[in-house]
Structures are given as structure tokens and as C-alpha cells.
Amino acid sequence: MNEEAKKTLLRMIPHGLYVVTSGKAAGDGPVHGFTATWLTQASFKPPLVMMGVRKDSQSYASVTGNGAFVVNFIPKSDRAMAERFFQAPPASGSRFGDQPFRPAPATGAPVLEAALGFVECKVVHVFDHGDHSVVVGEVIEAQILQAGEPLLLSDTPWKYGG
Ligand SMILES: Cc1cc2nc3c(=O)[nH]c(=O)nc-3n(C[C@H](O)[C@H](O)[C@H](O)COP(=O)(O)O)c2cc1C
Fold it and tell me: Is residue 161 in a domain?
């Protein structure tokens, strides 16, 4: 295979940029969040989304361990939010820092107050094959929090793919 062609072409796949959160936002249960771009809708009925999650990550452990996750749609004007959630967490505390969040209605996973909106998903399938697993989530709740355009990977200098 032509490795350069593979990388160039796979990086042409258009992607959004999201913060995927999991855990329990109420009480002192641990919460987790990470920036994800390998995410797409996969079915109308039932409404499904699927995302690639690095197998050996804290994110994978949290999403699959909780059996649920929230996809937070980030405003185009808030690139810093996406940056915060792919950086190493501070030694004390989580990536959420001073970002306000609240429990999602069905699962209690954290919803970022600054998001345009969110879909809340329960994990219905995990396909383990490569270095990322495909996590399939059924959308069980959705809310719009504010008007605005979503942040896209192409709005940033970052690459994740190839
Ligand atoms: C632009 C960008 C997009 C990313 N997209 C994904 C993704 O779709 N899936 C994934 O598993 N990690 C993705 N990551 C990496 C995670 O955000 C990063 O590994 C995060 O630190 C997870 O670490 P943790 O699981 O230890 O919390 C992306 C990183 C960047 C910079």
C-alpha cells in the first residue's frame, strides 16, 4: 500500500470536533472527558452514533465502564474547549477545571454548560479490532443549549487521522 496516499486520503474525511464525557456529574463520582473527532451518525431507527476510541485510554475505560456517554457539541468560537480536553489533566483535578457542567437527564453523565447542545447515549455495542475500538451508542436524550455553529476539525490546525 502507498502509505502517503492512505494518510492523505483518510485525512480528507471531514470531521466535527466534540467533547465526549462520561461518569457521574452529581455527587463526587469521577467524571471524564476527551476530545473526539472520529464520530458519526450510524442509524436513524434506532438513532445510533459510533465513535473510534483509543483502546488503551482512560477515555475507553470510562465510556465502556459507565456504559454511557454524552457528546457535547462545541461552538466554533470555543476552540480552547477542545484543546483543554485533549491535553493531559492537571496533577490535581480533572480536565473540566472551572468549566461548569451538570448531569445529563438519563444517565447523569456530565453536560458542558458551554456546549451548543448534547446527545446522551447508552453504549449498545463495542467493536474491538484495531488500536481504537468502535463504540456504538444509542441516542436516548438530546438538548439544544444555545444557538451557534459547531467547531469542525478543519477550523483548527490539528490532525487526527491517516
Ligand atoms: C484533534 C484531536 C482529535 C482527537 N480525536 C480522538 C478520537 O476521535 N478518539 C480518540 O480516542 N482520541 C481522540 N483524540 C485523542 C484524545 O483526545 C486524547 O488521547 C485524550 O488525551 C485521551 O486521553 P485519556 O483517555 O487518557 O483521557 C483526539 C485528539 C486530538 C488532538
Answer: no
Cβ 34 under 6 angstroms from ligand 1 = yes
pLDDT at 161: 96
Which residue's CA lies nearest to atom 21 of ligand 1?
86
Per-residue pLDDT tens digits for 47-68: 999 999 999 999 999 999 999 9
Pick the residue whose CA is nearest to atom 26 on ligand 1: 58
The predicted pLDDT at position 32 comes to: 96
Q: In the chain, how many domains are there?
A: 1
Which of 57, 95, 126 most suits a substitution to test ligand 1, by most atoms within 8 Å of the C-beta?
57
Query: Is 52's C-beta closer than 6 angstroms to any atom of ligand 1?
Result: yes
CB contact at 8 A, 162 and 15: no
Whether 162 is in a domain gets the answer no
Decide if 121 contacts 109 (C-beta within 8 A). no
Is-contact 122 138, C-beta < 8 A?
Answer: yes
pLDDT digit string (tens) for 113-162? 999 999 999 999 999 999 999 999 999 999 999 999 999 999 999 999 99
CATH of the domain at 114: 2.30.110.10
Question: In this structure, is residue 109 part of a structural domain?
Answer: yes
Q: Which residue, 90, 118, 149, is CA-closest to 21?
A: 118
Which ligand 1 atom sits closest to the C-alpha of 52?
9
